[in-house]
Amino acid sequence: MRISRVLLRVWKLLALILGVFFLSAVGFMLTEPASFPTSIYWALTTLSTVGYGDVTPSNWYARGFAMILMIATIGIVGYTVSNITLISLQVKEEELLGVDGTQMKGHTLLLGWTPVSKAALQELLLQGRRVAIMTRRQESLAEIRSFITSFIRETRHSTGRRLSMSRESDVFVAFGDYSERTSLALLNIHEAREAIVASDDDARNVMTALILKELCPGLRIVVAVLREQLKETLQAAGVTWVISPSEMGGRLVSAAALQPEVARAIDVFTTTAYGPALEQFLVSEHSPLAGRPFDEAARIIRAETGAILVGRAYPATTKDTARRDAAFTVTIGPPVETRFHPGDYAIILSSPEHSDKLLSWVRVPPGRE
Q1: Where is the RCK N-terminal domain positioned along the sequence (predicted)?
Q2: Which domains does the chain have, with CATH numbers?
């Protein structure tokens, strides 16, 4: 990829070298009684500064031409080599900055590099997602790439994950201002499935969310804000989900103080890094859960997979696709006679030893469509 981009930029310089080469061969053939193959050989040895000495000019016309060629070669070759080196460095820097963009499809946008987005990236990688990241701090690019490499390597080594986890090639990192349309275009936002906006600037988060909503009305947008009073503003603008990390952190701190085991359970359930995973699965028309009452579905899931059915989520009636996600009604432990219908989601708790059986049984991947 990089070689082709370098060649695309240096073809004029290569054409210059080739032109000088053939001009040298023709000039030597005209000034020296030599065949064309011999002239080609002489031009090649002269331009490459090898100069074996087996073919030399025999008259002053040819010697004068050779001297002019030698002087010109020093400047031409030096100019060409220095420019090719400079272009190669520019291409490498552009790749590091991500200025060429990505052609990913079905990926997650992660805008901003903060502790919140770092934690989100870990979960996305563990779930095997493709991720396009953009940061406004150029110095963060190396940190992000280093984190991705070390996290994937260490996680695979410690947990043995192979198939489900993302690869380094599944992550695109770019430098840019994600509150500007031109920068967002680098991330192929129209092919993205969802966007997580989690910078440390609430004003920029709001602006970015509104631009995303305008450009991609059906995109699922999750925004992390520091000021809770902005939640209503963003929700009114059509943002799918607005989260206050401080509010969620406060709840967990309170739970840790009053009910530490509950806090530990919440911590376990909200990560796929270790232990049980709490996931949602779409109930389709052909799902083994379709049409079944909750208590019957719970017994079958437990018997067939060893997992535990926790709750049900059913869609809202709103026609706004962006708001439909946030308007989903979730019931934990609903009445036993509650039936699952196509379009619902089953919320299931499974341990690592049960996950393969569960995936094989439900026949759909976890997460939203």
Answers
A1: 105-243
A2: 2-97 (1.10.287.70), 108-243 (3.40.50.720), 275-362 (3.30.70.1450)
